[in-house]
Amino acid sequence: MRNLILVLGDQLDHTSAAFDDFDSRNDAVWMAEVEEETTHVWCHKLRIVLFLSAMRHFRNELIRSNQQVEYHQLEKDPANDRGRTFDEVLRRDAKRLRPSRLVMVEPGDWRVRKQIEAVASERGIPLDVRPDRHFYCSTEDFAKYADGRKSLLLEFFYRDMRRKHHVLMDNQQPQGGQWNFDHDNRKSFGKSGPGDVPPLKTFLPDVITKEVIELVQHRFSGHPGNLDHFNLPVTRRHAKMFLKNFIDNVLPQFGDWEDAMWTDETFLYHSRLSAPLNLKLLNPRECVEAAIEAWQSGHAPLNSVEGFVRQILGWREFIRGVYWLKMPGYLQMNHFDHQRDLPAFYWNGDTEMNCCRQSMQHVINHGYSHHIHRLMVLGNFAQLWGVHPQRFHDWHMAMYLDAVDWVSLPNTLGMSQYGDGGIVGTKPYCSSGNYIHKMSNFCEGCRFDYRKRVGDDACPFTTLYWEFMDRHYELLKDNPRMKFPISNVTAMRHKPHELRDIRARAEELRREWGGLSGKAMNAGSNSESMHFASTLRGMP
Question: Which residues, in sequence order, are CB contacts of 228 under 8 Å at separation 6+?
Fold first, then answer.
């Protein structure tokens, strides 16, 4: 064998650089389903099904195009596996197949890249790691961009990307006369609610997907989530239909309502394209071009189109650049020295806080919640609670369909938990219950009062927000974007009884609700462990 082409589960792209100069007579494609990728974090059942089904469909497409495929498939009985990790399976296959060279595109996970590099070195096989053309900005170009800069600000990077790729530009000026329309994209629904939201685009499971669902139900039955309604795109053809539905039916109102939340509404006006994008079933360029065409044709307003483009051309490219620029040390960053585990409701959604219960039901039922649920509800609470940022990242990797290490880590440890001390975001993204009240109807009927800082009915977000600000006063007082809340804390410090009561209530909550890691839940993922989780929360 000349080349063994390694294709990982988030690299399902027929135009990948890995296939450049592919010779079907002398080369083969290697793909592997391995247990470690479902258990190193306690993976959501839907996430396992999405990855495995998409991989098997991609394998079949390769075979139909007369390419030789060496595929390791998970079986119902783990004893039939050739190994638990990528390096174990690859080591055996490299010995058996004896390729002259291993070829792969840059992986999306530092850990996996190091595993594969170790096997290549051990076996003495050259490893050709090729750039990932899926992205607009290569890791080398981002490193050049970052070199010599005191700080990495998304806004400046985004503008450079717009200019470089001539996206939404009028010569050297932005279309519409401004670079972003973020100020216009923060509306809340008001008392009337969202009205009739656009219909979902869904896909019935085919034979391959049904086989994977059966496998996951049998082998990973104790994992979180449920598989009652798997309806996701697992092929490129379906992913393109998914994109078309967003452009046609959802994009026109995306901008106005992208930050809004509402009871029992999971998707609202969001694209849900992150999962097929991150599996490479879609290319970011076709998403951006389709959105711009919708604006040019008058189908969608500029604020919606620019907001969508910024998520892909700006934020998605920016955090990938940060990931590869800062790894492996980035994973160890913990600016606030937070050490706690997540409260158990992050695994089962069982909490009296309506906003967190709503957000977690989205995650449990769909492996998804939109970015405000992630950042300003679940991420916000974890930061205020004092969760170790790496544990929050592990939870996100476990529970979200679109989680791949390169995209998850800077979003969770950096943006959400401020664990990097300001590399990704210029301030901690934290708030009291007032923000949630403003952007949703979750506070109506909740047993907690978002206005109260202390007392049994005080909103835990509000209590913990002021306790967080006081606890990290010295780290936050010189941040210009925290000037207003810090001035309030300074005033509160002249009334020590008020802060004393806030601290006491925060500690009471932590004692009552405890904390539980995904590893602990996974170790006993049965009714007994769920009873243990309830006990930790102080519930019957």
Answer: none
